Amino acid sequence: MYLKHLLLAEEVGSEYEMFFAINNIGNLYLQQEDWNNALTYLMRNLPYAESKGTLDQKAYAYTNLGRCYSGLQQYDKAMPYFEKALPIQMQRTDTARI
After folding, report:
1. pLDDT tens for residues 56-65?
2. Other CB atoms within 10 A of residue 88 CB
3. What is the pTM of this model?
4. What is the DSSP string of 24-57?
5. Which contacts of 54-59 are long-range, i.e. CB under 8 A and separated by 24 or more positions?
6. To pair with 64 at 20 to 30 A between CA atoms, which of 4, 22, 24, 25?
7. High-pLDDT (> 70) share of the chain, %
């Protein structure tokens, strides 16, 4: 379903929808603890999140990358993403994701 969402978003050229489709695919891989595939998808979202993304999109991108690198036990790479996510999460008062 998420792959179909991604294909449709690419077809119509909606970067916003592509972000969420890619994020969802990355999250599926995170849930399966397939860290390398998760990283592949989640890294695709980082340029969009940082340049055009909403606060929510930035928070999702940073938090998910932190989770992924933690799963890979690359804590030195995870920490900067968590550090970027924290102030955004605090600003959004989204304490469930902290």
Report:
1. 999 999 999 9
2. 19
3. 0.87
4. HHHHHHHHTT-HHHHHHHHHHHHHHHHHT--HHH
5. 55/88, 55/91, 55/92, 56/92, 57/19, 57/23, 58/84, 58/85, 58/88, 59/85, 59/88, 59/89, 59/92, 59/94, 59/97
6. 4
7. 94
DSSP state of 94: -
- Residues with Cβ within 8 Å of 93's Cβ and at least 6 positions away in sequence, in order, are none
Structure tokens at 9: 């978003």
Q: Residue with structure tokens 């940073």?
A: 62
